[in-house]
Specification:
InterPro entries: ADH-like_C, ER, GroES-like_sf, NAD(P)-bd_dom_sf, QOR-like, Quin_OxRdtase/zeta-crystal_CS. This protein is an alpha/beta fold. The protein is built from eight helices and eleven strands. It folds into two domains: 109 residues, Alpha-Beta Complex (Quinone Oxidoreductase, Chain A, domain 1); 124 residues, Rossmann fold.
Length: 262
């Protein structure tokens, strides 16, 4: 669902891209595991000369997801205190880098000491090893019982109730993934005691128009070019070895971004 390539043909009446342009896309339609792909012209974005094509391919989905989470789903501002689950993950890592550059205080949860070091390098001020300590209690301690302004939760079922408990009055829970499964149903009345906000966003709904798409990608590429966002491109495979890439992913032999090269 994300790729970078060179335009080799343009349909009749199309404008905005021309043969020879380096372009990228993220989202629908699926089909990036191919040497050639037909895409709607309004779904591709130009890749600036300052961005290496492999870097662009490795950051499109994660970077644009980070952009809408930090700038539009909840507007992070200097002084905000933020909890990021899976802080060393693909989106979590970029989210910490971006939010830290704004001036927010970052609390991240991770599973290992190695990931804790990465989260700190990405801008986390406090890192919680959730297998060793209760993250709800630790967040309460770190915030003197006040709670955080926003929780970014890509884990889902295992962290959902705890994430709500970590929020301050009128805080925001942004549930943008469910790696541990879908959260249990929540009655609206559960949000009432602290007047909480809950949203379940997706990238597709934040890049509905071509203008939104182009602005999001432009902002991501600018952050990469300026050094604010650093991509961990640790693995590349020939396109013919896509199955091996998936096997390595599933067995946790990889870290950072994985790119297939046609």
């Amino acid at each position: 669902m994300e790729a970078v390539g060179i335009v080799i043909d343009v349909g009749p009446g199309s404008s905005g891209s021309k043969v020879g342009d380096l372009v990228a896309y993220a989202g629908n339609p699926m089909g990036a595991y191919a040497e050639e792909q037909i895409l709607p012209v309004d779904r591709v974005v130009p890749v600036p000369p300052s961005i290496d094509p492999v870097t662009a391919a490795s950051i499109m989905l994660k970077g644009m997801t980070t952009e809408y989470l930090v700038q539009r789903c909840f507007k992070v501002e200097p002084g905000h205190t933020i909890l990021v689950h899976a802080a060393a993950g693909g989106v979590g890592s970029l989210l910490c880098q971006w939010a830290s550059s704004i001036g927010a205080t970052l609390i991240g949860t991770v599973s290992t000491q190695e990931k804790a070091e990465q989260a700190k390098n990405d801008g986390c001020h406090h890192v919680i090893l959730y297998k060793e300590e209760d993250f709800v209690s630790r967040v309460s301690e770190l915030t003197s019982g006040k709670g955080v302004d926003v929780v970014y939760d890509s884990v889902g079922k295992d962290t959902f109730e705890g994430s709500l408990a970590c929020l301050k009055t009128r805080g925001y829970l942004v549930s943008f993934g469910q790696s541990s499964g879908a959260p249990d149903p929540l009655p609206l009345s559960a949000l009432a005691p602290k007047c909480l906000f809950l949203t379940r966003p997706s990238l597709m709904q934040y890049t509905v128009t071509q203008e939104e798409l182009l602005e999001s990608a432009k902002d991501v590429f600018a952050k990469v070019a300026s050094g604010i966002l650093k991509v961990r491109l640790n693995h590349s495979y020939p396109l013919s070895e896509a199955a091996q890439a998936h096997a390595d992913l599933e067995s946790r032999k990889t870290s950072g971004s994985v790119v297939l090269i046609p």
